[in-house]
């Protein structure tokens, strides 16, 4: 029955994620369509009578007006909804608690924020935020209740614990990828490569099932929206169109060209990440107030419109109208029957611009147009990523890659991916995503070569964009492997010491004092047999969590004195699940003076077999234990099994490989 419930939850995750993706797609298409029609009418009118500056002001004003809505929602109501959300979800799946990251309010603001960002003309995509949206949906559905709405549906109560919830969030992230790109297998691999810390065979099947359901749901409802009930040819939010396999052949002597493309993509990605790193530091220092963040977002929206207008205005690249893929072709100063090809790239949503670059016939763009567009859009994208708006970096990367790929005139489908891998550093999942999204297996090998080369080259210069932003937020993120030069460090050198321990039978007042002490921010406490005369901890008996102690105090699970018969209230697992995940703060629990003198028997509630290591255990071994077993605490003991220290995630994440060897970094305490 429990296994059936897991499959039901995954089905619900897929359906709801697909519906959210459908809503975002339709809303962006309608809102952006109205904007471009109004601006096109203005440009067409003032091209004939003069006064195009009015069209520029109108375009900039519309962009700013749409973007300001999303920016205000994010900056003032839920800052964690900013960006793509992928770094935050990576951290959550890695075992880090990020406040508000999977709240219902975050989902609502994320959805409306990404609609305003894309429709407002920013150099962003709506695909990245879908991953965050799917994760939030999964976190909510799997718990069978909404803590934000204070509604408990009394279902899926067994899943109200961290391990189960994270498994479902992995499925939600994969469903988001699947809805974004129409790539169910790519979604599974993304969740494995970028997200889930712990993996098993059944989890793989459930995640794949959620991804397939998500793609099918989006397919089905977009078919209805386009007036083709039953048509399942809209697999994702971005549709690259159909590629003719016969027209896309390559030979073995062209493989070095693909590798060269990967090198260029890696270099471009490294430049992008470095520029964005310094810009993010500037924002952290000087643009940290919500009003300033909204002002910057509005400024970027207006500048994007201004740059786009200027590029179109000064472009003399005119092409015959019949060959154009754009929905809103601008004639401007071109002859009758012709359109401005620069407008095809700028005067459109990024997804449709990518499709145009893929499928417009040879000669649709001249090299000057592509060169100017690539440079200007590259600068706009690097400035835009990190704004206090909901936005993704996938599609801008694809668009930049497609533009300079077309500029070199070499096989667009493979060239595109170099920039993406150079920026975000995903290889396995991105290869499959691109193969599934384009529907072309022929270019699987070139795409893989480009991505691997771009990642290797990019990693040589700087970390991936998501890892950079995780590090800037001082989040204790654990990578797959320990730093290469950390073998000389031992558990003794990285552990936290001295450790706050409790006796098996502990005074309630002491527990309250420890939990109330701001300096004691551990979430786990070793339980020992007895303390020595010098207050040294005794032999280890178990480990108890802060959340468990909070629930025990809330339900007054006390005995009057140490040796009285244990007549105390028996708790059930339901009592702990009902409190999850928002356990009450210790300040909200009232304990009278008489109750402080009572005792609490921790032996019934502690974990009697916590993982332990000797003091001399090497850091890589400690790291592997944490990563492979999904630990939160690792007790360090001496040869007599006495507690000498405690290793937590923050202790391990503090060490990273820098340019001058192993370096120690500051870790956020929140």
Automatic annotation (TrEMBL):
Keywords: CBS domain, Chloride, Ion transport, Membrane, Repeat, Transmembrane, Transmembrane helix, Transport
SMART domains linked to this entry: CBS (SM00116)
Protein name: Chloride channel protein
Family note: Belongs to the chloride channel (TC 2.A.49) family.
PROSITE patterns: CBS, PROKAR_LIPOPROTEIN
UniProt entry tagged with the keyword Cell membrane: no
Annotated organism of origin: Acipenser ruthenus
Predominant cellular place of this UniProt entry's protein: membrane
Start and end residues of each CBS domain: 606-664
Subcellular location: Membrane
PANTHER family per the UniProt record, alphabetical: CHLORIDE CHANNEL PROTEIN CLC FAMILY MEMBER (PTHR11689), H(+)_CL(-) EXCHANGE TRANSPORTER 7 (PTHR11689:SF136)
GO cellular component: lysosomal membrane
């Amino acid at each position: 029955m429990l296994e059936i419930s897991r499959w039901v939850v995954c089905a619900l995750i897929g359906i709801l994620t697909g519906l959210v993706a459908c809503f975002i797609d339709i809303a962006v298409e309608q809102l952006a369509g109205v904007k471009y029609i109004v601006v096109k009418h203005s440009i067409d009118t003032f091209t004939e009578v003069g006064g195009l500056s009015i069209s520029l002001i109108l375009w900039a004003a519309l962009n700013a007006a749409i973007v300001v809505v999303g920016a205000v929602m994010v900056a003032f109501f839920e800052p964690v909804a900013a960006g793509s959300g992928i770094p935050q979800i990576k951290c959550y799946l890695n075992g880090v608690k990020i406040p508000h990251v999977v709240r219902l309010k975050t989902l609502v603001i994320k959805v409306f924020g990404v609609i305003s960002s894309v429709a407002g003309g920013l150099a962003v995509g709506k695909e990245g935020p879908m991953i965050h949206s799917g994760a939030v949906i999964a976190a909510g559905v799997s718990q069978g209740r909404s803590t934000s709405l204070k509604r408990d549906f009394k279902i899926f109560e067994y899943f109200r614990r961290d391990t189960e919830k994270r498994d479902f969030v992995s499925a939600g992230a994969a469903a988001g990828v699947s809805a974004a790109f129409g790539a169910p297998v790519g979604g599974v691999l993304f969740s494995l490569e970028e997200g889930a810390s712990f993996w098993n065979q059944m989890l793989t099947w459930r995640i794949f099932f959620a991804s397939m359901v998500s793609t099918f749901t989006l397919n089905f409802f977009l078919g209805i929206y386009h007036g083709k009930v039953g048509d399942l040819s809209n697999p994702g939010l971005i549709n690259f169109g159909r590629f003719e396999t016969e027209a896309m052949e390559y030979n073995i002597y062209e493989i070095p060209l693909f590798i060269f493309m990967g090198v260029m993509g890696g270099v471009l990605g490294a430049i992008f990440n470095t520029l964005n790193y310094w810009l993010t530091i500037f924002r952290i220092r000087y643009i940290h107030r919500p009003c300033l963040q909204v002002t910057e977002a509005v400024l970027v929206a207006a500048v994007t419109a201004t740059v786009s207008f200027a590029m179109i205005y000064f472009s003399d690249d005119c092409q015959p109208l019949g060959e154009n893929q754009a929905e809103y072709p601008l004639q401007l100063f071109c002859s009758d029957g012709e359109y401005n090809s620069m407008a095809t790239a700028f005067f459109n949503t990024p997804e449709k611009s990518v499709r145009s670059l893929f499928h417009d016939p040879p000669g649709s763009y001249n090299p000057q147009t592509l060169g100017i567009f690539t440079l200007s859009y590259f600068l706009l994208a690097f400035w835009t990523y990190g704004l206090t708006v909901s936005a993704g970096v996938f599609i801008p990367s694809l668009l930049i890659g497609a533009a300079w790929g077309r500029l070199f005139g070499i096989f667009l489908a493979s060239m595109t991916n170099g920039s993406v891998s150079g920026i975000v550093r995903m290889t396995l999942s991105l290869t499959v995503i691109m193969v599934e999204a384009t529907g072309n297996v022929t270019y699987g090998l070139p795409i893989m070569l480009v991505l691997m080369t771009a990642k290797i080259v990019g990693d040589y210069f700087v970390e991936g964009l998501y890892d950079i932003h995780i590090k800037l937020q001082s989040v204790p993120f654990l990578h797959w492997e320990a730093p290469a030069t950390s073998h000389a460090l031992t558990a003794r050198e990285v552990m936290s010491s001295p450790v706050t321990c409790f006796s098996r039978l502990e005074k309630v007042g002491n527990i309250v004092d420890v939990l109330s002490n701001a300096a004691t921010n551990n979430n786990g406490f070793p339980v020992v047999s007895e303390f020595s005369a010098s207050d040294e901890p005794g032999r280890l008996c178990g480990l108890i969590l802060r959340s468990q102690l909070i629930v025990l105090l809330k339900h007054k699970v006390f005995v009057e004195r140490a040796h009285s018969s244990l007549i105390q209230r028996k708790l059930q697992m339901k009592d702990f699940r009902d409190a999850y995940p928002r356990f009450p703060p210790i300040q909200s629990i009232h304990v009278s003076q008489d109750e402080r003198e009572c005792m609490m028997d921790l032996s019934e509630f502690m974990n009697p077999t916590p993982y332990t290591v000797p003091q001399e255990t090497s850091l890589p071994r400690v790291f592997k234990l944490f990563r492979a077993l999904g630990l939160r605490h690792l007790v360090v003991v001496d040869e007599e099994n006495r507690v000498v220290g405690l290793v937590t995630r923050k202790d391990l994440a503090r060490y990273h490989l820098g340019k001058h060897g192993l370096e120690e970094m500051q870790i956020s305490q929140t």
